[in-house]
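Before the break, one more example. Copy the sequence into your notebook; we will annotate it together after we see the structure.
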Amino acid sequence: MNNEKLHKKRFSAHKITALYAIAAVSWVILSSTGLHLLVDNIDAFKNIEIYKGILFTIITSLILFYVLRIREKADMKLNEERLELKNKIENITNLYSALTKMNELLLRSKDEETILRGSCELTVKNGKFKTAWIGFVDEITGKVEPKYFSGVNADYVHKLDININEASGARGPIVRSLTEKIYYISNDIENDMMLSHWRDRSLEYGYRSFATFPIEIGDKVIGTLNIYDNKKNRFSEEITKLLLQLMKDITFALERFELEKRRVHFENLFHKIVEQATIAVIMENRGNIVYANKTALEMFSVNYEEGMSGSPLADFISNEYKENMRELLESVYRGERINEAEVKMLKWDSSEMHTVYSAIPFMVNGKKGSLAFIRDITAEKIALNALHASEEKWRSLFENTPSFVTTINRQYIITSANRAPLPLHPQEILGHSALEYVDSKMKDEIRGVYEYVFESGEPSVYHTTGHGEYGQGSFFRVQAIPQFKEGVVNQITLIANDITETKRASDALRESQKRLNSIVESALDAIITVDSSLDIVLFNKSAEIIFNCSSEDAIGFSITRFIPDLLVSAKAHKINRSDNLPGLSTIIGKGKNIEGLRTNGEKFLIEASVSQSTVEGKNFYTIIIRDISERLKAENELKESYQKVRDLAAHLQSAREDERINIAREIHDELGQELSALKMDITFLNRKIEKTKDNPDWEAFQENLKSMINITDQTIKTVRKISSQLRPDVLDKLGLRDAVEWLADDFNKRTGIDCKVECMEFNEELSKNIQTVIYRISQESLTNIMRHAGASKVTIIINNNSDNINLEIQDNGKGITSEEIKNGRSLGLVGMKERAYFVGGFFDIEGVKGKGTKIKVTIPIIKYEYGTENN
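Here is what the structure looks like once it is written out:
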């Protein structure tokens, strides 16, 4: 009891004592007066008035005494109520203060921990409770662990043994709060049976009141807020309501953080999904693109660094769809959705593509926009068109196939047919049983086939006789193929093929097989058939002769006995147990020569080809082998003969060049000098005749002499031209570069065609033959250009590296055609090729119509003489 209460009780005791004293004095006075009257006037006692006075005095005293007593009790009760109300007001005020501080904390908090820790601290500090703690359940052990604590007696809280896995009958308020989402108030721990398990320890630590409230996020309880106080009845109805409001505020804040976490999570997830999406995603705001994912950039062929942000969406829409797209976007801005509208769009390079465009309303920076999902269906469009074409082809094939195709249901009734035996029409057999159109003797057997297909779901084949397409009797092979619906066979497709001719052909095949065997045996080439294990199953007579082995000794043995090159492949085949036999296709092939082995150990070259066939599901390989050792010997002899002719031609070419040099030298040195001497004599004679001007024939002599001088000058020029064409002096005196430049300059003067030469300095001295070949090919090329090309410009490029010297001659004429290149009568081209071959080089010519012709010559930098290397 506090001092204020003690003071009030003492005050009441003094007041009661005073009242008692007043009552006693009053009683004595009244009693003394009455007694005096009684003694003095005994006769008057009988007087009723005196009796009434005495009685009135007594009653009045008693009433006064009782009134004073009631007033005392009323004052005491009023004081108690005043004190209790004051405490309630103080508690409510404190809790309001805690709520106010809590709201401030919720506004400035950035995380859950701040809120939970602050709720404990504010409950104790501002709410004036003794202890507050928040507990969470350990998911592994199920134990309720204190996470946040404020107040006194921390050891009490941490020593609590509360487990969510407790039996339902033994569960306390905290476990029930966690599991049942209910709060619990105990205003008298000492007498609360629900807290009997924790009563003694709670009283030991001075706790008299307790409350627990669930902390919820959404529909899930994540923990409890537990509050203790050392006073009974601490949790009044008003306090409880305020605490529940506090829990709502905490829950709201926690849910706000949870929603923010989810928002961030889903936003990150959204960006991740969008970036990894295989469909283009574009975000636009009133026609302007603000975001495009990677797939969109790839779909529209936009550079990743440049991106699409900031570009108008209309730039990527085909003109014929722009108005339609504008209407679609306006509907999205009104809150509607676009579900897979077909739109023709443009890539960055303006190429068109067909797309499926879907969009939903989306706020972008607070403004109305759309989030679009775009799928390129160009390939699908092409495939769909192809599918439609394929369907038409299938329908045409179904209607025009020579096979009878029908469909029957589980009652064997025909539901569709592409044709019927004449004179019936397909519509006439619909609705009839398929058994009506089979041999009556085979109906039971065929019915059994139908039952088997319907029950097992496996296709089957049967043969029957019936009427063919033209009504004649025929023999049919029928395939019964099951058709499934929801995992059950609901109908069978019957494909009937008239194999009457096949049966006849089968008989004929047997006859032809005999003839084939006769052909195989009489063939000049060896024919060997092997199975998938490379074991021989056929060995004809020619094979016996070529390999010097009888068929009896060969059949059953591996083909590698006669073709050792297949041994490695055969081993690999046996290890892998494959029927593909890669060795056969690799080693044996068209144009490949491989080595054969006779039984006497003699090796020889063979030419072989292989073909594959399948008989009853097994692969067989037939190898046709020809002994080409004699042929190769003849080919080698022919090559040697051809090489000798080439060498002879090269020798003649060299001899011709030498002869040209000699002739050019003789013409230049001998004939040129003699003509020069003749010109000098004629000039001298002209001077002599000038002295005889009086001679009547002087003028005639003068004219004849001038004519002789002109003829002599022209003859000297002709001799020099012939000499330079046979062998220009500049080639021998100054070298290849100056010779080609002189040739180009002369060509320019004679034809008016611009001719340029790009010739580098050579790393080493070139042989006479190489220089001559390059010069002659250049000379022949310019001649061909002048005659046939119709060019206005020619470029000659000569360069070399450490291994080769290269010549390129390019003109801008009409361009040589492939037919002209292949024309064997083009002796100029043949001559150039032979010249290049003469020094071990390569010659190539190519033309482009309207753009000109290019000649390429590559010659190894080795000194050749008469077609052989000259060291």
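The chain has 24 helices and 27 strands. The longest strand covers residues 352-364. Try to locate both features in your own notes.
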